[in-house]
Amino acid sequence: MPIHHSICPSTAARSDTFSPVLPEAESGQKFLEAAYCLYYTFWGKNLDEILQPVPDNGNFKHLTQTQITSLGMKERLLYPGEVLLVREVYHVLYQDIRSYEKSGSGVALTGQPGIGKCFLPHNITTQLLNPGKTCFLYYLLLRLLQEQRTVAFQVRDKFILFQPTGVQIYDVNSDFGYFIPEGAWALTDSCTGSTIPCSAFLVACKAGRACIVQTTPPSRDMWRWCEKRSAHVCWMDVFPLDELIALG
Fold first, then answer.
1. How far apart, in whole angstroms, are the C-alpha atoms of residue 69 and residue 235?
2. Is the N or the C terminus of the chain less surrounded, counting Cβ atoms within 10 Å?
3. What pLDDT is recorded for position 246?
């Protein structure tokens, strides 16, 4: 059965020590707290007001390392980097993916391995090994929370269901696909989730209840599900020269 527990915003916000181990018995509560912290921070809130200007480069915004840590995104929700830099291409991809929105279908976002690795332009000396496709999936999650959309987000063998009534945690097996409500988004990454969308997501998609967005390396085996669901395959561009120059 799903784990369901309400946590007040102040309780979630106080959690600032994070375990690198994903939820089993003793850590499940902390995992749920991190999910609620994300929910209360971004649900219906203006994402642009939460993002911070990048030091010495006001053309870019990002979630800072402090924000990533306090939200539990890295240690508990498996965000792969220290900051979340919002690239220009993320805005374009977001609009493209929204145009493909259709329950019972979806999008696989791919590109060369390591494409769009995130840099922290803070005297431009640090390269953070963030696969850009995975970073985009977390950005997409935050945008959808801002719009108060129902989202199922896979983290290894669990998925978090964000919806107007709060947050629930489910296993990824097929039985729990029926708990995903109609019109939901189902987000999964082949690195932090599973190589293909989990059984729960595929069941919800087949039933016409969810639109899957998968970020994945360019292996057709990982996005072969698209052929059965008439889903789209999109490719993420590498950094353009002007963006590389801006990042130093």
1. 30
2. N
3. 42
**Structure pTM?**
0.81
pLDDT of 64-112, one tens digit each? 999 999 999 998 999 988 889 888 889 989 998 988 888 788 999 987 6
Q: What is the DSSP string of 138-190?
A: HHHHHHHHHTT--EEEEETTEEEEEETTEEEEEESSGGGGGGSPTTEEEEEET
